[in-house]
Structures are given as structure tokens and as C-alpha cells.
Design brief:
By secondary structure, the chain is mainly alpha-helical. The chain has 4 helices and no strands. The chain starts with a helix and ends in a 7-residue tail after the last helix.
């Protein structure tokens, strides 16, 4: 599990760099914040799915619709946890604070990894 967790983290770093580069490019082209952010998330989800499926969790073969659905569901749930933790941290006095944001990011990453490992890319789920 440690190996896959490290790989998951590296995919997150790559994904962040790709997303940031995409936002920078789109802003340079005049796309604006909202479009650049949305496009970055859309590309980021594709990068995350592809790299985590193949490299982090070693899943091979054709991609099933159910697999993509599970991935998007896990992403949405993880993001909801992120928002809930951020709200909690804000109520504890960490509004507009990197501690609150960092705590929410750790919660998001942990939930996303564990659910990806168990429900999205596990041997039983991928078949």
C-alpha cells in the first residue's frame, strides 16, 4: 500500500503541474479565471484517471463505463469532504489560512486514494 500511496502522490504532483500550466496558458490566451479553472479540472481528472489506473494501481485492459463512473463519484465525494473539512477549519478560526486549506487537501487526498484503491481500481471493481 505504501508504494501505491507514493505513486498516487507523484501523480498528484504531475497533475498539479499540468493543471497549473493549463491555467497559465488559458489565462495568457484570455480565457478568464472560470474557464481556465474548469478546463484545468477537466484535463486533471483525465490525467489522474489515466496515470492512477495504469501506473499507481496497475489496471490494464479496456476502460469500463462503470470504472469511470466510480472514479467521478469518488472524486465528487472526496471534494465534498474537502469542502466540509474546510468549512470546519474556518469555523475553528482558520479562515483564509493555509492550515485550513492544507488540512482540507490532506483529507481530500486521503479519501481519494483510499476509495480509488478500494472501489475504483481494485481487482474486483475493475472487472
Amino acid at each position: 500500500m505504501l508504494r501505491s500511496a507514493l505513486r498516487f502522490g507523484l501523480v498528484g504532483v504531475v497533475n498539479t503541474l499540468v493543471g497549473f500550466a493549463m491555467i497559465a496558458l488559458l489565462l495568457h490566451l484570455g480565457a478568464g479565471d472560470w474557464l481556465a479553472n474548469a478546463a484545468s479540472y477537466a484535463v486533471g481528472l483525465c490525467v489522474s484517471f489515466t496515470l492512477n489506473r495504469r501506473w499507481t494501481f496497475g489496471v490494464r485492459g479496456a476502460v469500463a463505463t462503470q470504472e469511470v463512473t466510480r472514479f467521478l463519484t469518488v472524486f465528487a465525494l472526496s471534494y465534498a469532504v474537502n469542502v466540509a473539512v474546510l468549512g470546519t477549519m474556518r469555523s475553528l478560526g482558520f479562515a483564509e489560512n493555509l492550515i485550513g486549506q492544507g488540512t482540507a487537501m490532506v483529507a481530500y487526498s486521503a479519501i481519494f486514494f483510499l476509495l480509488s484503491r478500494r472501489f475504483v481500481f481494485s481487482a474486483g471493481a475493475s472487472r
